[in-house]
Design brief:
eight-stranded parallel beta sheet; nine-stranded mixed beta sheet; alpha+beta; 861 residues
Length: 861
């Protein structure tokens, strides 16, 4: 129902034809829809000519004419889509339709991802027995698709190393065949043969002439971006423990470079021992309290149970020796998540530079793995010096781990978890945490001349000192800089590539390394699927069914804290994975707040795997966007919010400095997937919902606004400093919402049932929905304000599922393999909108999935 609506035509997608308390209705968007109806935003994508995407002096992306060097558009922003596996290489007859549909929904960037894999018919012809031959037919398919993207104004980000599987037949050692493909990719950081193989592939992809455009990709303006390596780096690999377990042949190659690096800085092993401050300190008193009779139900030991059922029992004289008590944890009902049962004792404190040792006895009723951490007892629950994994058997075993304290901490705890996803019993005894221990002892036979100083393992038997780890990290940073320098040089000088280059995401590589290239990148997934047992098991997985609006500490704010000032900023993978009931919020939230932060682009992951694009009636995996009708519908609103710049950039900015030396110190206290972020500088996530946030890097960082982080804001409501965006938390979960109030677009996202929202001269009143949740947006497609003469589009989305999709439990966090079938069903969302004109001057139409008018909808005053 709409009241007092202006002199205009208002159009609605079929999903928002409102009938109170209606059943779910079919809502399928055809895979080949290129119709330029009122819902199309394809006019934002002019065909690509000789204009090039360049970086302006302000650090943003602009379009420049190659001949004149003049800006034809002061800015270009990207809403992109990842095309993965075979969907990145569609059949010839499908390519024009796919490209046209992307443009219709506001997509102006495609990221070719996983097109180098060894499990589908991709760009590398693995049938030749190695990974060095380009599949000419598939390259031709790629060329044709790119030509269609170019016609439809869609630019390309070409990924150069994602899932390639190197072979010993590539002139690499035989042991490479035993290395997991993701780990193989870090060999190029220190193995010259692996690096040359990466260069060879880049040449084979970028330099052949595209017969459909007449240009090689290296010279074609449509290929605006080249991305060197996906989610990887030598530091990331070290912190993940991958370097610890490399085959010896590769460990020796890395060790040779390490010893060369050391020999350039130290004259002798004695000098090295002194510089590394090798430590062997006597043990102090145990700072932990013993198990009590009622522990851990009572302090000091705690049994945290987040899901499933578990109990703890203290058993006298049941330890590894007479007189030693034990604590037994029984997992009565397993959880879906391995860490959801934890044993810990908070309240300890430690000082940066201390050597400390955690020791304990443990066993289990059957063989299983366990994670041991010394960690912060409060948000953000980060590591505080120790993070190890051990294997338990049914025999008592003593464990002892020394570590170096990376930073002062007022409240830390030893924490044991990792076994909650199975029915089991685990015993603990004599848990001690004390000052003292041995760190950084260099073997007696070590010699710089012999080149046998050992690599520093992430989880070595003799932990390294702070000083030794700092040297090691400095060495790894140099390897990263060398790798990217050589790859960029090859792309520019050998391939002749004229587009923009970026390396990998900041979660996996230092900001001072990545900022040397053209663009800084990030990735973010709200509630990424978790797997029970084998990774990517199609049956045993969960996706937590919660909305992102419920917290300020979320995927978007995490990405925002990775921006580097003065550099274009991307998020080339973003998704709220299915079957999350609230996942249609994703395109709207990222678009609104990326605009507030003045990002240069974001890419949804992904469009859809395989070549089943003809059958678009149901989504059958976590990430496919193309068949997820309500996500696709909200991309239309997202295009206006972000690309049309309906949401204004924040007025103020918080910029904190991060020199290479400071970043090196911060690296000593972090771990994988958290390598570069302003959070390490103390900046808390809620600020990204109010002001722009960024780091400034280099030896002399510029534009710094804060030398120290401002205090965190304790509030349940964050308003942007522009006044256009409001993020409101609820007193309890699933009461939150986000409000968008701009001149051309008004929107509500979240739990807004039966409330009235006054957004300027527009009033929206959502009705009852099954989850109490919806997204409702009204956006101008013609005119400058919600006054005559204008035309507007209304899009409302609610719960969306496939027909016969079967939830496995009441939490609705998994469907296993029971995704259901076509058609996609969506909930009609009831609402009222009041606009500032007499209803008699207005016409309103319901639309079909193509955007054609179905029928006129009566209005009331």
């Amino acid at each position: 129902m709409m009241k007092n609506i202006f002199n205009s035509a208002i159009v609605l997608l079929a999903s928002s034809v409102v009938i109170v308390n209606a059943e779910m209705i079919p809502f399928v968007l055809p895979w080949d829809d290129t119709n330029r109806t009122v819902v199309s935003v394809a006019e934002m994508n002019p065909p690509i000519g000789n204009e090039r995407v360049k970086v302006s002096p302000s650090g943003h992306l602009v379009l420049t004419k190659e001949a004149e060097g003049q800006e034809t558009d002061p800015r270009i922003r990207f809403i992109g889509m990842n095309m993965t596996f075979e969907s990145g290489l569609p059949p010839r007859e499908m390519a024009p339709k796919v490209a046209g549909r992307l443009a219709k929904f506001g997509i102006n960037g495609v990221r070719f991802h996983h097109v180098d894999n060894n499990w589908c018919n991709a760009l590398i012809d693995y049938k030749q027995g190695d990974s060095r031959h380009i599949n000419k037919q598939r390259l031709d398919d790629l060329h044709y698709f790119i030509s269609q993207l170019k016609t439809n104004g869609v630019y390309v980000d070409m990924n150069l190393l994602v899932s390639r599987q190197f072979k010993s037949s590539d002139s690499l050692p035989p042991e490479v065949d035993d290395v997991e493909w993701k780990v193989q990719h870090i060999l190029g950081f220190f193995n010259d043969t692996a690096l040359e193989l990466q260069k060879e592939y880049a040449t084979g992809i970028l330099t052949p002439v595209n017969p459909y455009t007449g240009l090689p990709m290296a010279k074609d303006p449509v290929v605006a971006f080249a991305e060197i390596i996906n989610e990887n780096g030598i530091i990331q690999a070290w912190m993940s423990g991958y370097l610890d377990h490399l085959p010896d042949v590769f460990k020796r190659q890395l060790q040779a470079r390490w010893n060369e690096w050391l020999a350039e800085r130290y004259d002798s092993v004695d000098e090295l021992r002194t510089a590394w401050n090798s430590k062997k300190e006597p043990f102090g008193e145990n700072t932990l309290k013993p198990f009590g009779k009622n522990a851990p139900e009572n302090a000091p030991w705690r049994l945290e149970v987040h899901s499933g059922k578990a109990k703890a029992t203290v058993l006298d004289n049941d330890g590894p020796a007479e007189g030693i008590s034990a604590l037994r944890i029984d997992i009565v009902e397993p959880s879906d998540t391995s860490w959801h049962v934890q044993l810990n004792q908070p309240g300890d404190k430690q000082t940066q530079g201390q050597v400390r040792t955690l020791s304990f006895w443990a066993k289990a009723d059957h063989a299983l793995g366990m994670t041991i951490r010394v960690m912060q007892s409060q948000d953000p629950w980060g590591d505080a010096g120790l993070n190890r994994s051990v294997s338990l058997s049914n025999e008592w075993k003593h464990f002892s781990f020394s570590y170096l304290v990376p930073a002062d901490e007022k409240d830390i705890r030893p924490n044991f978890n990792g076994f909650a996803d199975q029915k089991c019993s685990v015993w603990f005894a004599d848990i001690q945490l004390m000052n003292g221990g041995s760190l950084g002892n260099i073997p007696d036979n070590a010699s710089l001349k012999k080149g046998n100083i050992p690599n520093i393992d992430w989880q070595g038997d003799v932990p390294a000192t702070w000083e030794a780890r700092k040297d090691w990290l400095d060495f790894l940073v140099e390897l990263e800089n060398r790798y990217y320098r050589l790859m960029c040089s090859h792309l520019r000088e050998t391939c002749g590539y004229e587009g923009l280059i970026f390396g990998t995401i900041l979660a996996n590589s230092p900001a001072n390394v990545q900022a040397k290239m053209d663009i800084v990148d990030s990735h973010g997934y709200w509630q990424h699927p978790q797997f029970l047992g084998a990774a990517w098991n199609s049956e045993n997985w969960t996706v937590d069914n919660i909305p992102m609006t419920d917290t300020f500490n979320n995927t978007f704010t995490s990405c925002a804290l990775q921006r580097v000032t003065g550099k274009p900023f991307f998020c080339t993978e973003y998704q709220h994975p299915s079957p999350n009931s609230y996942s249609s919020e994703g395109p709207l939230l990222i678009a609104a707040y990326a605009a507030l932060q003045d990002w240069d682009g974001f890419w949804l992951f992904d469009y859809g795997t395989g070549n089943g694009l003809v059958d678009m009636g149901a989504f059958r995996d976590f990430f496919s966007t193309a068949p997820h009708t309500t996500k696709m519908a909200n991309l239309i609103l997202a295009s206006h919010l972000f690309r049309r710049e309906d949401v204004a950039t924040a007025q103020k900015q918080i910029v904190m400095g991060l020199t290479p030396e400071k970043e090196l110190e911060k690296l000593l206290g972090t771990g994988p997937w958290s390598i570069a972020t302003a959070r390490h500088l103390g900046l808390t996530p809620e600020y990204a919902l109010k002001h722009r946030v960024a780091m400034s890097v280099g030896e002399d960082p510029k534009r710094i606004t804060h030398k120290t982080a401002p205090e965190s804001i304790k509030t349940s409501e964050m308003d942007s400093d522009t006044g256009e965006l409001k993020w409101q938390l609820g007193k309890e979960s699933k009461q939150s919402f986000v409000q968008v109030d701009t001149a051309k677009t008004k929107a509500l996202i979240g739990f807004t049932d039966n409330r009235e929202f006054v957004l300027g001269n527009v009033v929206i009143r959502p009705g009852n929905t099954e989850l109490g949740w919806s997204t409702i947006g009204i956006t101008l497609v013609k005119g400058e304000a919600f006054k005559a003469p204008s035309k507007a589009l209304i899009i409302a989305t609610g719960r969306t599922e496939n027909t016969d999709m079967q939830w496995k439990n009441e939490k609705h966090d998994s469907v296993g393999t029971h995704w259901g079938h076509s058609p996609v069903l969506t909930e009609p969302v009831p609402f009222e909108i009041t606009l500032p004109e007499n209803h008699a001057k207005v016409k309103c139409y319901a639309l079909d999935p193509l955007g054609n008018r179905i029928k006129e909808i009566p209005l009331v005053s």
